[in-house]
Amino acid sequence: MRKSLLVLLLWAPFAMALLPPPGQRLDQPTQQAIQRFLLHNRILDSVLDLDNAPYIVAADAGRVLGANGERVHARGDLDPTQPTYGIFRRGRIYTDPQTQEFLGINADDIGTARFVMAGDLTTLAVQRVTQEVRPGDRLLRSPSPVELASLETPTAAPLIEGQIIDIPKGVTQIGVLDAVTLNKGRRDGLVEGQLLRVIKTGATVRDTLTGAPVKLPDERAGTLLVFRTYEKLSYGLVLSASRPLAVMDRFETAHQRQ
Fold it and tell me: Which residues does UniProt assign to the signal peptide (predicted)?
């Protein structure tokens, strides 16, 4: 814990250089971190978006598992003009921490496959795998890219408050250039390029003299950049952190409309 905090404190002055002034474009390291993340992470607004997608039936020669370089056979509406499909599996269901409303579903990245031949069963060649491909894994088109070169931070924004609800890469503590999942999206007014302040809720301690519980003040702990929005969820990138961040930390828009 002490070591990770020391790393964050030493990195903080350099991380501040990543913060884009309002109306300015992102620098190259930030763009690269976003591009790497988007290659392997996807949120779907509805479970049906995944359940109705084309699916893998079997691997070549009747094998039930596919690996890198093998051919797999799939059923569903696959477009021959779409050269590459992502292979995904149902992952975590996201719900709002306060209202328990369904917000979306995480599609776990399995790999990618290249279209080879159409037919009753479409043949694809596996190009990249993170784990073994299974029958029932779904095939999704590549999402529309984020235009990072022209992604600009708005000069003003309404007050939007929410929480970090997940760390897609599965770690427990969040540092600079890590991506996080937020429980607010397009319907709430979040836009790609929006800057957010992260706020850690003050702990409740006991007054040693009176015995009464006392809540310590909330503290600003970092800055996020919203780089991909969905209907009810968003992805944010940590641009600065003065202390370790964690799931359930709060956030609010960094620029309020005057």
Answer: 1-17
> Is pLDDT above 70 for 152?
no
pLDDT per position as a tens digit, 230-240: 999 999 999 99
- Check the CA dihedral 177-228-168-57 and report its sign: negative
Give the side-chain half-sphere CA count within 13 A for 165: 25
pLDDT at 16: 40
- Which position has the higher pLDDT, 155 or 104? 104
Task: Report yes or no: 240 and 222 within 8 Å, Cβ to Cβ.
Answer: yes
According to the 3-state scheme, what is the secondary structure of 132-201? CECCCCEEECCCCCCCHHHCECCCCCCCCEEEEEECCCCCCCECCCCEEEECCCHHHCCCCCCEEEEEEC
In whole angstroms, give the CA distance from residue 43 to residue 92: 10
Cα separations in angstroms, 220 against 104, 184, 196, 244:
28, 19, 11, 11
- Give the mean pLDDT of the chain: 83
